[in-house]
C-alpha cells in the first residue's frame, strides 16, 4: 500500500536525518556514535542491493516499490546512493556494465566471484540461481533510474536518472555478448525501463532497437549453444513485437497514481 511505503520512507529518512527512531522496542539515532551515520548508510545501501538479488529476483513487480523508496532516499541523502552503486557494481558487474577479464595469477574461484557468482567451500552456485540474482539486481536498477519519490522536491534533477540508463544500454551494446547473461540482462532492462527510454529518447531509441534486432541479436546467437536459447528467444520476440507495434508496453507492476491513495 502507498501509505505503508510512506511509513517506511519516513522511518529511513528520519534515521538518516539524525532523528530518534523506534525499532524493535528501542529508540535509536545515528548520532549515538561518531561513525553511526556512515555505518547506517553502508548497511542500508547493502540492504537495498540484497532486496534486488533476493526479493526482486523472485517477485519481479517488487522492483518498483523498493526502487521508489531508494530513489527518494538517494535524492535527500546522496551518500546512500553512492554506496548503493558501489555494492551493486561489486555484486553485479553487469550493472556497470562490465565483463571482468581473468588476470594472470587470479584463481578460478576468485574469478568466478568477480563475475558475480556466489562461491561457498569451493562450490559455485547453480547457473539458474546466478542468473536469477543478476536479473533481480538489473531490474531494480532499471526501476530506480525512471522513478521519483512522489512527495519530494521536483525542482532538482533525479540523482541517477534515465540518462544513466541510456548510457548503460549504449555501453552494453558495445560489449561482446556472453551466452546466457547478455540476452537476459537486455530483456530485463528493456522490459522494465524500455517504455521510459522510448518516451525520453524517441527516434534514437527506435534506432537502437533496430540495431539490437538486426546486428546485436545475431551476435548473441553466435555465442549461444542450443541449450541456452530460452532467454534469447524471449528477447527476440520482445524486440520484434515492440518494433511491429512501434510501442514498448508499460512494465508490469509500475506504480500508478491510484497506488498512492491506498
From TrEMBL:
Gene Ontology CC annotation, any one: nuclear pore cytoplasmic filaments
GO BP term (any one): protein transport
Compartments in which it is found: Cytoplasm; Nucleus, Nuclear pore complex
Gene Ontology MF: a single term: phospholipid binding
Pfam (any one): GLE1
N-terminal signal peptide: none
UniProtKB keywords: Coiled coil, Cytoplasm, mRNA transport, Nuclear pore complex, Nucleus, Protein transport, Translocation, Transport
The family this protein is said to belong to: Belongs to the GLE1 family.
Task of the protein: Required for the export of mRNAs containing poly(A) tails from the nucleus into the cytoplasm. May be involved in the terminal step of the mRNA transport through the nuclear pore complex (NPC).
The name this protein goes by in its record: mRNA export factor GLE1
Source organism of the structure: Rhagologus leucostigma
UniProt gene name: Gle1
